[in-house]
Amino acid sequence: MADIVNLRQARKKKRRDDAARDAAANRLLHGRTAAEKSKNRLGREIEEKRLDAHRRDAPPESGSDPQG
């Protein structure tokens, strides 16, 4: 004898399984952990500070030239 299947429950289960599969695919494509995000942010901040430390003073404006 065949098992009785509740179609409403079967549809809900299929929808949940499809959503979980799609979510897993999106996590692989777009997801980064919080640790990865903070590591990238800190690295970017360190590079900006290093670049700013090597920056020369801004050249004087042409209108306020003290020599002439």
Textual characterization of the structure:
With 68 residues, the protein is mostly helical. The chain has a domain at 14-52. Helix content is 65%, strand content 0%. It is rod-shaped, with a radius of gyration of 30 Å. The model has no long low-confidence stretch (mean pLDDT 87).
Termini Cα gap: 104 Å
Beta strand %: under 5%
> How many beta-strand elements?
0
Provide the residue-averaged pLDDT: 87
Summarize the structure.
With 68 residues, the chain is mostly helical.
What are the main properties of this structure?
single chain, 68 residues, mainly alpha, 2 helices, 65% helix, 0% strand
Topology:
Elements: H1 7-30, H2 34-53
